[in-house]
Amino acid sequence: MTAEMGDKMAVKIEEKIVAYEVVTDQATSAPATAPESKKAASPPVAREEDGNVIHMQPLMKRPAELQGSTYKIKTPLSEHALYVTINDIVVNGKRRPFEVFINSKNMENFAWIVALTRVISAVFRHAGDATFLVEELRSVFDPRGGYFKPGGKYMPSLVAEIGECLERHMTNIGILQPPEVSKELQAKRLIAREGGLTGGNVCPKCSQLAVVRLDGCDTCLECGYSKCG
């Protein structure tokens, strides 16, 4: 090995390599930048012209005073009731939920209840459409099984009943409309009420204790399900 070759092989690189070139004895070429495949990929930038870009609404600031309502939840799962408080903010002359708090003497579910209220409140404060929360919460089923409320209404979980409180509140302030009941089902409810039939078996469709026998046919007074069609 000659001294000249040794000097070439012992070069110490002090800085980050940002370009390279191939040197020959015959000719030199201008520095070539790294190939496109070698460059670090930059993160995609969302653009206004992209039709599927979702823009978050700005976070609303909390006023010093808010109006709200408190709903009591009493379940057979605990001797202590839960109290769900939903406070509203007025936007363009209309009330909309801004925050939710849940309080109870029962500390068994404290951690996940606090987490749930913070997530729901965060959704409220971004001023978007939060009605989807009702269906999401009401679709939660407890693997240990649900329970029946006084009057025979079935709740698949405690979370589902919190979702029902939210639905009731949104209906009261006008964000949600009450579910439409067909004239046929209204007539069946009237017949059952006049005949003293206020409760019955579990409905296979909606799981409510509302199946009674009308005109020789089992009929659900909650959702209208009937074996006779």
CA radius of gyration: 32 Å
Structural class: alpha+beta
Overall pLDDT confidence:
79
**Coarse morphology:** elongated
Number of strands: 10
Biggest sheet overview? 3 strands, antiparallel
Tell me the fraction of residues in β-strands, as a range: 15-25%
What strand order characterises the main sheet? Answer: 3-4-5
What is the terminal separation in angstroms? 97 Å
Q: How is the topology of this model organized?
A:
Elements: H1 3-9, E1 19-20, E2 32-33, E3 67-73, E4 82-91, E5 94-104, H2 110-125, H3 132-138, E6 147-148, E7 154-155, H4 158-172, H5 183-194, E8 201-202, E9 209-214, E10 217-220
Antiparallel strand pairs: 1-2, 3-4, 4-5, 6-7, 8-9, 9-10
Overview of the structural elements:
- With 229 residues, the chain is α+β, with helices and mostly antiparallel strands.
- Among the domains are: 67-172; 183-220, no CATH class.
- The protein is built from five helices and ten strands.
- The chain has helices spanning 3-9, 110-125, 132-138, 158-172, 183-194, and strands at 19-20, 32-33, 67-73, 82-91, 94-104, 147-148, 154-155, 201-202, 209-214, 217-220.
- Strands 3-4-5 form a three-stranded antiparallel sheet. The protein has a three-stranded antiparallel sheet with strand order 8-9-10, with helices on one face. Strands 1-2 form a two-stranded antiparallel sheet.
- A hairpin with a 5-residue loop joins strand 6 (147-148) and strand 7.
- The chain starts with a helix and ends in a 9-residue tail after the last strand.
- The model is unreliable at 27-49 (pLDDT under 50).
